Amino acid sequence: MSTSQPSVSIVVPVRNEADNIAPLIEEITTALDGRWDYEIIYVNDGSTDTTGERLKAIMAQRSNLRQLRHARSGGQSAAVRSGVRAARGVIVATLDGDGQNNPAFLPDLISAVEKGAGRVGLAAGQRVGRKDTGFKKFQSRVANKVRNAILQDGTRDTGCGLKAFRREVFLMMPYFDGLHRFLPALVRREGYDIAYVDVIDRPRRSGVSNYGFFDRLWIGIMDLAGVWWLIRRKKPTPDVTEVKA
């Protein structure tokens, strides 16, 4: 690990993505080198292929690359949370490990949080030109409309893995499986603004999807109801000052 304190941490949750490891890390470094002091944290979510070995080989060459490993798969939300908790940067950015999220958009997301000067808690990527089947895109549109009607989070696409946020804001969130899909609503709940960045989707490089999609609406119904309840029960955050003697 680098001895310097990074200002930005890039968290990448992966499960059985061996062939996508090296190309994505190369793209991340191309996007960020010379712009921030950063670290890359791969969260190996119980992979059974050579994902861990590929990461170890690159770690020998890159001092700012870290690998966390789950003994068994806990899912994408658990992997993101593990990475954020281990992160040393004030700002954390996330992207999926399958190559569909282009790291070239990371600087725009990180800069949006920085320019927010503490007011922007989350910069959310919004996909254009999605590389999914017509039926999958239809499911996603329906799910996003239902979610937005209930939560009124003002976000057209919560399923994009490209996000940047203040680490302290993420750690305020109540943890549950699927948390990463409801970040806009929960960040607004804490009184922060959200910045949006259009990002161009691209096909997966290799392999198959290892995590479920929120665009299957019936999977997210209970989570949707739970987040709605959390928002309804939120009281104004007290304005706290310490009284000195």
UniProtKB/TrEMBL annotation:
- Annotated Glycosyltransferase 2-like domain residues: 9-170
CDD domains for this protein: DPM_DPG-synthase_like
Keyword hit for Transmembrane helix: yes
Listed InterPro entries? Glyco_trans_2-like, Glycosyltransferase_2, Nucleotide-diphossugar_trans
GO cellular component, alphabetical, reads:
plasma membrane
Q: Name one GO molecular function term.
A: undecaprenyl-phosphate 4-deoxy-4-formamido-L-arabinose transferase activity
Name this protein carries in UniProt: Dolichol-phosphate mannosyltransferase
